[in-house]
Design brief:
single chain, alpha+beta, 12-stranded mixed β-sheet, 4-stranded mixed β-sheet, globular
């Protein structure tokens, strides 16, 4: 019954909006980070500082510019980047501030421009099909009535920390990740009042724009929506960079991360801390 009602609403709204329908939505992201430092040489004060820095690192804003079938998703420029304390290095595996994600919902594909340690890549691949289950719950996000949908997927969580000091010349590195991955439940809230089958990151496939997503670790919530502005955003597929598949890019990224670990100089003050967060 819920599915029928939503499809009817979607049909009504699609008939209202013209072909030139366009808009943008701003999302704020947050990520839960659980670092186990009990066996490290990091004192409680430094641990609190690290947790604060990581929390700020993952609080970002992204803008999704969209029309009926295509979109561009990129990070908003930040005026102030979080600074690590002396002797601390953050190595983030994932998207960078200059990355651009283009999605073509009609053709079920994406093109993602990514800068990996100064080298430009263009990741081209198919959009993964998401088997959404439409739930009966509703809630308001801003002025929009949103419907709940859930799905599951297999993913790997990586949270690692290494501490090197004079006392431990080989260093102590902890990296945990289930090689077989784990099944996580993704909860999305979408509104048929904006009839585009799109959302943040690679989320798509629902009968309305996704305004909120939570996978248990990362959350994305819309904070601003602009529809049919006089000045329309340019939605252009990126074309620069070495073309690779998603699988190939992940292999290259892991190789580069390993090379960085191998080349990392050791400090003589016993305070070198390196943290890598990925997902």
């Amino acid at each position: 019954m819920i599915r029928i009602m939503i499809l009817l609403l979607l049909f009504v709204f699609e008939s209202i909006f013209a072909q030139g329908f366009q808009g943008s939505v701003t999302y704020k992201t947050n990520r839960k980070v659980d670092l186990n430092m009990e066996d490290s040489k990091v004192n409680s004060e430094m641990q609190k500082h690290i947790e604060k820095m990581l929390k700020k690192q993952f609080q970002k804003e992204y803008v999704l510019s969209f029309n009926s079938s295509t979109s561009i998703y990129k990070e908003e420029e930040s005026l102030e980047e979080p600074k690590a304390a002396s002797g601390m290095t953050f190595v983030m595996a994932g998207s960078g501030a200059s990355d651009i994600l283009y999605k073509n919902i009609k053709e079920k594909r994406y093109a993602s421009k990514r800068d990996l340690m100064g080298k430009l890549f263009l990741v081209k691949d198919s959009l993964a099909k998401m088997d959404w289950k439409l739930e009966g719950e509703t809630k308001k996000i801003g002025n929009y009535t949103c419907y709940k949908a859930t799905t599951t997927r297999m993913t790997q969580r990586i949270q690692s920390m290494s501490v090197r000091s004079n006392e431990d010349s080989e260093g102590n590195e902890e990296e945990t990740a289930d090689p077989e991955g784990e099944e996580v439940t993704i909860t999305a809230w979408y509104t048929p009042e904006i009839p585009v089958s799109n959302g943040p990151e690679n989320y798509w496939g629902l009968p309305g724009l996704i305004l909120e997503v939570n996978d248990g670790v990362q959350s994305m919530l819309s904070t601003k929506i602009v529809l049919n502005a006089k000045k329309k955003s340019e939605i252009k597929e990126p074309s620069k960079g070495k073309i690779v598949s998603e699988e190939k890019f992940n292999q290259i990224m892991e190789k580069k991360m390993q090379e960085m670990r191998d080349r990392e100089p050791r400090r003589d003050d016993g305070q070198s801390i390196r943290i890598r967060i990925g997902g």
